[in-house]
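User: Hi! I'm a student and our assignment asks us to look at how structure tokens line up with a sequence. Could you show me two examples?

Assistant: Happy to help. In each example below, the sequence comes first and the structure tokens follow. Example one:
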Amino acid sequence: MRKFLGRLYKNQSLIYKYILYALSIFLVVFFFPKGGKFKYEFQKGKPWQYDNLYAPFDFSIKKTDEEIAKEKLSIQNNLIDYYAFDQDLEKEVYYAFERKFDTIFSGYKLKMKQFTSLKKVGHEILDEIYTNGVLKSTGITTKNALYLVKGNEARKLNFEEFYKLQDISGLVDSDLNKRGLSNYASEYQELFFNIIKPNVFYDENLSQKELENEFSELSTTRGNIDEGKLIIIKGEVVEAGNFKILNSLKEEYESELWAANNYYFILFGYTVLVALVLLMLLLFLKKYRPIIFRNNTKVTFIFFNILLMVFVTTLVVKYDETYVFVVPLCILPLIVKTFFDARLGLYVHVLTVLILGFVVPNSFEYIFLQIMAGIVTILTVSELYKRANLFISVAEITLIYMVGYFAFHIIHEGNLENIEWLVFGLFLLNGMITLFVQPLIYIYEKIFGLVSDVSLLELSDTNSKLLKELSNKAPGTFHHSLQVANLAEAAANEIGANAMLVRVGALYHDIGKMNNPTYFTENQITNVNPHDELQPLDSAKIIIDHVIEGVEIARKSNLPDRIVDFIRVHHGTTLVYYFYKKQMELEEGADEKDFRYPGPIPFSKETAILMMADSIEAASKSLKNPTFLIIDEFVDKIISGQMNANQFLNANITFKEIETIKKVMKQKLTNIYHLRVEYPE
């Protein structure tokens, strides 16, 4: 049992990757839409590449969403609305007439017969007005007729058969003129103006029910295809007619395929394909990026971003597949390139696009456009700490999307008609969301402990608190660090390493000397050397401890791990030779281990460059009257000594790159010492 637990502990990193791999497969397949996949790929405007296709079963030709929307609009425009007749309101008007008639005409000295006659005229006008009712104005309408619901009966009437409030005045004048009663026009106008109220209202509830009933009876299909009927022959161009038939067959096929008896087979197929894609990622990391592969945090970071993009895309597709290009997929290669390298960024992007090919419509177009956009992202995005670079790159990515979509539209339609300008707006929105990568990078740095160029730029500021403290407590060490940073940055640029990273690492590599600055020669402003009063072993311990103390200071100051690594490895496991030799003079049995730095040795090009630059810059202070030849031999001797001490075994640096670094160091030292060619007198 103990042996098993020991093996388990030893392989815990690998076991974690297996769990992460399995969990990622499960989540990706879980995100996938629940449906089968049509076995033929086709696009409008392209030839049918397969054998003659016959209908495998009976199915209906489905109308497109645009056709259904158009038919619904037609139904809505032609549908006759329902209006309700309010009889209670009509009774109120007649009651008001009885009350107000007496008041208005009381000033006239009329005989009873005349009074009754005038009242009768008023009743006749009211009867005429409320035969169909007074229509409440509902605004401008293009419809000519309506259904008037009176009691339990609905009658179809024209709008012209109803009076509106603005018509009442004219009607009253007309009727009075016909009867020779125009002398009483003002009294009748006042009377009807006060009592007439609309009593025919639009019945929204009944009209909406009728509309929904009409919609429910709307057919979503147009004709049927019988089993065995020829749909398309090989080489025939997929055009509008057979494109609709093929889409109908695809939809019917996928819905029938995802049946209970096929569910697990389809699920298994999806799982195998996703597992293959993610396996390719792990194999790539193991073979070509072993440092990243060994770091579980970085592997988790990469898988997390893939899952995030898959999740967001599938979510958008389920909501409305029209908006699939709003998802800023180019954020993925951009982020991976920022924290790792361009090749890995493109590789991760391509694998993610392949996974999404199962989810999105028109997968060929999608994969083509996204891979092209990913390549442009990798080629154009650099030095994100320069704000203009990101905007320029996003503009180029957006342009690629637009040009690609435009080309596909021409291929499919053969003209510029029916081009969907909304899609161009979606591409612009995609670009705007891509700009969000800056705060996203900051969030990732805090969550996963990674370092981007933006953070490195901030750390390279010599006015930062830690570097200010170094310059105050150990000015000689600060100056030495600046010189090392310049040497290392020049060498890194020459061999294509991360110059910004190595510069920042060089600036902070000796911060441990702040605790005992006078024990290091560059900070000794007098001829008094405190090592003269110490034993060689104690002196060596102080010198070696500046690495350990530097790591502690860096941790307390929350420096990123990548910078702390430079502090840990900048001396590797080299020997503090000066004090070791002094100890050997005192006693022959001195233990070499007491005079060696704890390591580890450099593990990357950047850390190897720092070791070379640090040793060369420090040792160059001992050169007296240097010449070209002396500098040449001096640089060769120091770097060869480090190579013979096996300090670069774990760094992925070649002999050619080391020779290039030597050349740069020699040139820089020559410039520092202002050497000139000696001209003959």
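Example two works the same way, sequence first and then tokens:
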Amino acid sequence: MPDLSGLFTPDRVAIIGANDEEGSVGRALLKNLSSFDGDVIPVNPNLETVLGCECYSAIGDVPDAASIDLAVVAVPATVAVDVVRQIGNAGITDVVIITAGFSETGGEGEKREQELIDIAEEYDLNLVGPNCIGIISTPSGLNATFVRGEPPVGSISFMSQSGALIAAVLGWAAQHGVGFKDIASLGNEAVLDEIDFIEEWGDDPDTDVILAYLEDIDDGQRFIKTARDVTRETPIVVIKSGRTEAGAEAAASHTGSIAGSEDAYEAGLHQAGILRAMNIEEVFDYGQVLAGQPLLEDDDIAVVTNGGGPGVLTTDAVSDSRLRIAEFGDGVGAELADVLPGEADVANPLDIIGDADIDRFRESLDIVLSGESVAGAIVLCVPTETLGFDDLADAIGDLQGRHEKPVVTCLMGGEEADRAANTLESYGIPNYFDPERAVSSLEVLAKYRDVTEREYESPEAFDIEKERAREILLQAAERDVAHLGVEAVELLDAYGIPIPPSDLAESASEAESIAEEIGGPVAMKIVSPDILHKSDIGGVEVDVPIEAVRGTYRTLRERAIDHDSDATVLGVQIQEFVDPDESTETIVGVKRDPQFGHLMMFGLGGIFVQVFDDTAFRVAPISEREAREMTEEIQAAPMLQGARGRTPADVDGVVEIIQRISQLVTDFPAITELDINPLVVSPEGVHAIDLRLTVDREALPVGKLRETDG
């Protein structure tokens, strides 16, 4: 990994393109660096001085140029490439390119960006941008951006693929006292991307939380691996735009990014241990509470309030979350009864009555936080003449520190509440006007606890027949087709996935012979690469007795030709009929995503899979734990687990099949789509009944496979 520490801890910073023209980027950069602890060196061939400082014609003219730690480029795109080469020649390795006019503009801009990449590789440059607003590191006063705002010093590091969002956040952060360590505008990510900054900040002892606004992740597999390592110790909160189809189209035209599947992003972020925020407010709410508060040891919390209405609203919000209202227990109840008025109910949520003074609030919260059943608390207070928010803020901060349990607050009021919020911030306690935000922030402390406790497992390597599988896949190339159906069902057998006895019949008599050999009722399916949804055209018949097989064979072929007279019909698959009693039709599917690779899907299957949309996703390769999570996440999970008197299905068998399919598509990246539908699950076992897959013929391995080949 590149060492990016120099980007944020420079002693000498050169601004190439510095000038003193009002409203220019070069002037704004110099002004923002006026509080920088180190030296700032202006570079501009057209000026001798800039804002009273000596200005150099070129970076190579600066005395001891090699000792410059950071070069910030703000020159026209047409000369930026040459300037970066001069920077490399001078021996400077850390570069921020503010200049726009690269890949985001297409055509010539893309060529210029490729030149930047080539130069960065030649000189081993840590290059941020181009088309960004710069970087900030608050401990040294480094503000190498051209936007207004100076965030307070803190322990949150923030990166964004949108420079405009950083510009908006800086003023907001200063207004609300949200402190940052480092801030990076990623721009076009020609060289350094979000993964590099995750690695850097994950190793930074002064960064407690990483926040990110992302529109695109280029290398999803590397992202998951890197973030998974970092999130064990440092929480990462991401807001990902482009969740909707319209949003994805907008993202594709912004910073040259290409949006990937929302399901893949959701699965990838989850597997990486990343906490996902759904809006800008959430990302900073989560960042504040993670930076300032300890984790919840369990999900049981207390609500302490001097107003019944806000307490009810908070309880509703808790009910909508994973958190639980804690049971106080007799001991806590008895202590509370000693300090509260007789009309107070010593239950949770705890309403200490509207006339509560500071002593009642302090004593009540002290008792509640002492309770073994309480892992954290939300404190709500409305303004009254009997209580001052300033005193309350200090009391809450003191009690939170003594009990070392997470606390968030809702002090509802105007200027007095704002002052108290500033006091609470000094204790690391966030304050919200809306109880729902307080609940959501406390809940994220439970979610991150899950991440820290998660044990990552390596995917299991099953004993399979890879060479046999390759030969089956090559049938697609030999027939010059991209789609394979049940005629390729032996592929599953090669990977140890149970399939009912079956064979392909090319005539009615052959169909009858196969059925007799199977010995009983059969399922019959038309086999054609041109007919993907066989059920829709009547191409499937089940529970066919042997005496009806010949006639059914002819009927199925006639239906196929009636549907598409040009369709290539390979024959009819004759398969042992699996009794549906006490069985559940599920689906295991795979789709290759451009960012993350193969996206695994499990859900309720059969002909209604798209109607019910009951699915769970993970990015391959996946472990046994991740496969089991998939079976537990779908709404139909109780059907598999034995709901309403059903005999529990063979869930372990499903978990193994999901893993085997994960191994299959990892071994053969040429598989672009795969569906086993239905995968019939019963108490007796699991059977793959039907298969459909699409392959990239040009990516198929044609030589004999070695053991390590895919």
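Here is something you could point out in your write-up. Confidence is low (pLDDT under 50) at residues 246-260.
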